[in-house]
Amino acid sequence: MNGISRKIYLEPEAPTEEDNRSDQKRIEEELKVRGVDATMTWQAMKKLYPLCEKADWKITVSLAWDEKNWKVVDLEAGDRSGEHYGVAVDLGSTTVAVRLVDCNTGKILGEVSTFNGQIPYGTDILTRIFHCQEDPKTLEDAFDIVEKFVQNKMGTEDGEDPIGLACDTDLVGTTSSNYSVDSVFDKFGASPQRWVNQNGKIVYGSVTEETKNALSYLHELYERGVLDKNFALRAQNNLRDLVINGKCGAFFGLWWTPNNPLMDVYETDKEANWQPFYLQSTDWQNVYDTFQDNKYVVVRKGYEHPEIVMKIISVLFDYSRYEAKDADEVNDYFALNVEPTARPLVINVDYNEATFQITKDIQSVMSGMRKEKSLSAIEKSYYDAAEKFIQGKSETAEDWAAYESRLAAVGRLIEGNYRSTAKRYLDDADGEIPKSLQQLEKDTFI
Predict the structure, then answer these.
(1) Closest Cα partner for 37 from 5, 2, 77, 72?
(2) Which among 357, 165, 340, 161 has a CA at the least distance from the CA of 243?
(3) pLDDT value, residue 428
(4) What whole-number distance in Å separates Cα of residue 210 and Cα of residue 212?
(5) Is 24 exposed, middle or buried (0-12, 13-18, 19+ CB in 10 A)?
(6) Where are the beta strands (DSSP E) in 66-160?
(7) Other C-beta atoms within 10 Å of 334: how many?
(8) Omega into 50 within 30° of 0, i.e. cis?
(9) Which of 71-85, 102-116, 207-221, 424-438 has the lowest mean pLDDT?
């Protein structure tokens, strides 16, 4: 087998009074007799003495080709020419394969493969190249890009006005909504619709100076054309249509946005390339969570087994994920990131850092640091879906969304060192704002 390395066994004549050539010259001339014109590296020279003398001048030289000449790179005592091995690496876009090869025979002695660690940055080379380019680092960077989108009338047909940042009329998001402008409020340290601690006093975040500054900035974005000129007229379904039909340049979304609404985009146009960016972190230590929940699990008074609610939750979100051997169907269903209202009890329960830990565990398996069997049932469902998409074995929107949400989107949060905050609650529910005042607050913001 011819290659860029060789091992040759030599038995040059030992030095005598008549033949006083240097050890280096002796070996190089012996190689010429074998038809190899080579020079010796400094690393090999350092091994000449006392190796050659101790080996009774029975030695094996290792040669490497540097694209111009052969170089002696190593020396060994005795005949070791039969022990000539090489490593062949196939660096694929999805898989890295390594083979141990007997360079004398060409026989493959062993093989191992793992997922390419660059997978979180895109399934193809072109996407990864784009990832290496300068990404927006701040909100202002992103808004500059959106402004160019509008100025160049992208996503429009004749007679249509371009739409930059799609935005909900509520402006402030919830734990399950897209299209808010929460990131702008975060930029100014504002916490609208929440109670905050300012200098030891609990005040309503919507009336703080920080919120006023954020609203002023939003007005500037509106004037620049970054913010959708007709956002006050949009309904949720209309916003979804803008995204699906490629009519807007950007929107603020949650990590599961690939499942909803972008899964519908993928089904319509697989070439559409929405990219997630994590642009800033937030300090929530002075912000309180209030009782804003609008969904409850209610047990009828006097019901004989009220504990059934907690048992169902325990089975769905604990037992089926970590213990059950026959819950694949349930976990595959949850892996779709279905809307909580489509789940039993209309609720989702998990550990505080579960979203990030699941992705970290999947990344560890794909990088070869952990075994696949170490994944929990729910992690295995996400892993299988993402793997099928990465390997090109599936083009379903569900598997694409599993990859884009769990690896791409959450991967951005992990890369940006995002940390969930421990929730702090007020002692009672007196802080809940009446519906009439909530509507007045919304109208005032707009």
Answers:
(1) 72
(2) 165
(3) 54
(4) 5
(5) middle
(6) 70-77, 85-91, 95-102, 108-115
(7) 20
(8) yes
(9) 424-438
